[in-house]
Amino acid sequence: MKEGKLSAAAKREQNWGWFMVAPTIIGLLVLNIWPFIQTIYTSFCEHLGFGRYKFIGLGNYAEMLGSTEFWKATWNTIFFCILTVPVGVALAQGVFTAIAQQNSIAFVMFTMAKGGSLPKFMAKMNKRTNSPLNAVIFIICLSVVLTLIFHFSGINMNTVAKISNFGALSTYTLLNLAVIMYCWVQLKQRKGAKNVFMHLIFPALGAAVCFAIMLSVGDVALTVGAIFILIGLAYYLVLTKLLHREINLG
Q1: Residue-level pLDDT at 1
Q2: How far apart, in whole angstroms, are the C-alpha atoms of residue 97 and residue 105?
Q3: Ranges in the chain, pLDDT < 50
Q4: For residue 120, what is the DSSP state?
Q5: What are residue 84's phi and psi, to 5 degrees?
Q6: Residue 183: which of 170, 196, 169 has the closest Cα?
Q7: What is the C-alpha separation between 157 and 169, in angstroms, rounded?
Q8: Cα(111)–Cα(209) distance, rounded to whole angstroms?
Q9: What is the pLDDT of residues 111-134, one digit of tens each?
Q10: Residue 33, pLDDT score
Q11: Which of 220, 221, 230, 178 is nearest to 203 (CA)?
């Protein structure tokens, strides 16, 4: 068989393929392309009623361009698109980011619950959605409660954002310090220039930079953030010292 020439079986398969897509192609031509062509043609005609048309060239377009209603509708459409499209995209992106952030926090809480540092009901994974549903619900409820508290206490959104930044910066600071304590102090991984940079110098610089930025978030954010840290430390001490619960996040 020559190269590029289809066998009889391949031709039959190809014909069956065309036969199967033929209804879709015919529907596209009849219901979309032909009405589009007919619309273009009738735009150059005067409608005389009962399906009769008279060709008048660019008369309809000249009348349309000279109409104040047309230009008003055009500018309203442009204004509507300029106003709604960016806002819609921003809202969609905001909702998506919020959902992703909530889900990420929920997985962190799920891991902490599995390790014993949070209540066990947060360690349940929903089989249908493959997500920690209880942790997600808890995060949503906590977000609503904190939003109401911030709203009625007179804390504006700028301060709320600073409180959120404090949480992130304090976490990064403690994370860098944890690298030093675990790798440099506990495991004693100190030999070679790579270990010195990776386990001491870079984490120390990261902790210093994050801590310096954290101090600039403002008095209210610092106070609220410090309160949350103290609550977390108190919770940890109660679990480990009073309840003697072993925490394992490994």
Answers
A1: 45
A2: 12
A3: 1
A4: G
A5: -85, -35
A6: 196
A7: 18
A8: 28
A9: 888 888 888 888 888 888 788 888
A10: 85
A11: 178
